[in-house]
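Thread title: Can someone regenerate the structure for this chain?

I was given the following input by a collaborator and told the matching structure tokens would be attached. They weren't. Posting the sequence so someone can regenerate them.
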Amino acid sequence: MITVLMNAGPWLPVPPLGYGGIENVIATLVPLLRKRGVRVVLATVWESRLPVDRRIWMYQQPQFAHLLRPYNQVMGVAHAHMQRVVAEIRRRRDIDLTVLDGSASTVSRRRSSLVRRRRCGPTASVTHTWRHRWPAVTAQGAHVR
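Best answer:
Regenerated them for you:
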């Protein structure tokens, strides 16, 4: 049995109550993965209600409303969430794969150093695109960097 850590970020609960790009993707994938015997650790907000094997969070409530504030008042939100994700990766030895949003490059780089030291499994980065803007990329169904 493998264990996957999926990062939904601190912005919206999973599943979201309407809008939510990565949150909707995760809400669709997790039940299918669990049905196939994959253990899922979800990094999200406490209010998320998606059934998983373990949930980790930095914030109890979604932080989406804070995005309208000046940058210097918001920039620490994502960093604090990602610091919690990295702490969980360091603490656990059973995480075989980490799925991060493509914008989480800082954690991806930090996790890469942990992978090199054989402290955790690989990282998959999910990148969001609009199909009509990059038809050559999506014509084959997926884009891998």
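Confidence is low (pLDDT under 50) at residues 127-145.
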